[in-house]
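Running this now, will post back.
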Amino acid sequence: MLACQETLARHGQFDPGVHDKNLWSVLPDAVRGELMATYNLHDDAAIRQSLKTAVALYGSVLAEITRSDPLQKPAWVPRAVEQIESWLAK
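Update: finished.
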């Protein structure tokens, strides 16, 4: 999704490369930090926070890329995010 976001931001003029190898270098530092935080998995609290960070990042990227037509948010996304957030709140 981040590669799609970058491609849309650059009006189709971005090649993320095989396995998105060119993506990391174009991501803003804040996004890199969020991604790195999702790898903090040393205990249950860190895993929970990692998942919350990943869901938040997913939500913000999805919102940005679905602002463009003809891309639309899949109908199942709100319920899936709600379910994940419910699990994480327990």
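The chain has a mean pLDDT of 89. More later if anyone needs it.
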